[in-house]
Structures are given as C-alpha cells and as structure tokens.
Amino acid sequence: MPRVLDGAAIAAAIKLEVAEEVKLLAAQGIRPGLAVVLVGNVAASEIYVRGKVQACADLGIFSELITPPETVTTEDLLDLVASLNDRDEIDGILIQLPLPPQVDAKALLDAVSPAKDVDGLHPVNAGRLQAGRPALAPCTPAGVIEILQRSGIPIAGQHAVVVGRSDIVGKPAAMLLLHQNATVTICHSKTRNLPAITRDADILVAAIGRPGFITPEMVKPGATIIDVGINRITSREEFDRFFAGNAKREATFAKRGSTIVGDVHPKAFELAGAYTPVPGGVGPLTIAMLMANTVRAAQMRRNLPRRGL
Ligand code: NDP
Questions:
Q1: Looking at residue 305, what is its pLDDT?
Q2: The domain over range 139-283 is classified in CATH as 3.40.50.720
C-alpha cells in the first residue's frame, strides 16, 4: 500500500512552529503583519483569502484585507502597493491572483517591495532563489519541499521530474529541488515523449492544471508523487472517470455537485511508494508557508536571526 503524505498534519506542525516565532517576536514588541489585496468577487479567491486571514488570526499575525472593486485601475493598485510598501506594520503584501483583465498584473507584482513579497513572485526574489541566496520562496513549491523533508523522503541524488514550468509553481519547485541536490527534469506542453520521462522519476511533481493528467503508465512503481493540481470537476462523466465506485467521493459529489481532483489520476497513486492526496496534500501547505514567509519577512527586514523555517 502506498504511503499517504498527510499535508494537513505537516501544515499544522509548521503553523505551530510559526506561532512560536510569533511569540518570540512579540516579546520584542514586534507583530508581523500581512496585507491581502483581493480585487473583485472571484468566489474561489474569496475562499482562499478567508483561509489566509483566518490563519493569521490563529497564529497572532496582524492581517489587513483590502478589497478594491472589480473595476479598479492599475494606477490605483500601484498607489495602494506603494502605500503598503511604506507602512512599517506591514511585513508581507499578497496580491491574490487572478486579477481582472484591465490590470497589469506583472507591473503590480513588480511594484511590491521584494522585502515584503511573501508570495515570492518578484523577479528579485526569483533571482535570489535561483542564485541560492536567502529569499522569500513561492509558498506552494516551498511547501512541496517541506512535505518531502518532513516525511523523510530522500531528495539528494534522486531524479525529480517536475511537470509544469509556471513562475508560481513549476519553475521554483524545480529550483528548490535542485538546491536539495536532486537531478531535476522540467517538462511542459512541448515536451516530447513525456511518459518516458515521468516513468523515470523517483519524485514526480505534477503542476499542470489538468484533471488526472498523470496516468498509471506514466509512473515508476514506488515513486513519490506530489500532486499540486487543484481541479474542480462538475460533470458526471468526468466524475466516473476518476472516482467510479468511491463512496466517499460519491457523497461529496451528490451534496455539492462537484469535487476536486488533482493533476494525477487516482489509479496512478496506487503504484506510488508515497503520494500527496488531493485535497489534503499540498494545498494546506500553501497557507502554512505563507504564514512562515510573513514571519520570515518580518525577521529579515529587521535583520533578526531566524530559527528553523
Ligand atoms: P499554469 O497553467 O500556470 O501552468 C501549467 C503548466 O503545465 C505549464 O507550464 C504548461 O506548459 C504545463 N502543461 C500544460 N499542459 C501540459 C501537457 N499536456 N503536457 C505537459 N505539460 C503541460 O498552472 P500553475 O502552475 O499555476 O498551476 C498548476 C496546478 O497547480 C493547477 O491545477 C493549480 O490549480 C494548482 N495550484 C495549486 C496550488 C496549491 O496550493 N496546491 C497553488 C497554485 C497552483 P507550458 O508552459 O508549455 O504551457
């Protein structure tokens, strides 16, 4: 039986460590602060943001939710970011993506002070990560490394195959794995003979955004599979393709009219040595690492020593 890597438990452990750091900072009169900018009314974004604000409250981190209207201009958002950059009680600035089409998302992300870029998306932080310098790393890939390390899965010398090359997941995940001495292959939509490459992976990271894309014939038996994908499925046909005969999923689907599937087909997990389930695998780590990054930003900005994370 493959081992299920429990992301929720790992995220809870990380949050406890972050809460300890928050206490140490409080003893010095410092309260880390996170500003979350949520533009418009994207239902999924609202759910994510609620989770982030709640996590701040749970850990003693100050948070401020700013909700500009859907019609906001790039200029107004640049002014907002400039004011957040200047405010000393704000250590982290998170701009929830996606942004409406009239907003120049790149200009906005580039305007965030690299010292407050808790999503690790500023080119300065991407460069620092690449150069192996202390940096605020993107939360989801940082969470992938935490899952592997805290589960005792060796990374050094292993062949890690990352499917996906986005700036937010695939590329930084590959870089972090490389820094842990994996031999890394990055695959994308133009990769030829993908199954032959993924079949050679000791660690397979799927960050594609396509439900159940990684099928059993793409997996080496015994591999560790990290499924980053979050895909909502609503059609009965798709449901049956992934979860036919799964009573628990059937109940969720009947209740909500949808369920979540990762980028890995559930049948592919059966071949794995270990895997992260969806939901409950990588997802919970993203918020935990955001909390860790916020505390880290508070420490780095003040040249304070850091422990652990
Ligand atoms: P993007 O759409 O930005 O990137 C997808 C990547 O997958 C691209 O590099 C693309 O290649 C590649 N790809 C697409 N189709 C294929 C194919 N047929 N064969 C090989 N590669 C392919 O997505 P993200 O990186 O933002 O997200 C990936 C997944 O992770 C999504 O399901 C998303 O919801 C999830 N996610 C989960 C998070 C979490 O907290 N767990 C956080 C962030 C994302 P190319 O570059 O050539 O187009």
A1: 83
A2: yes
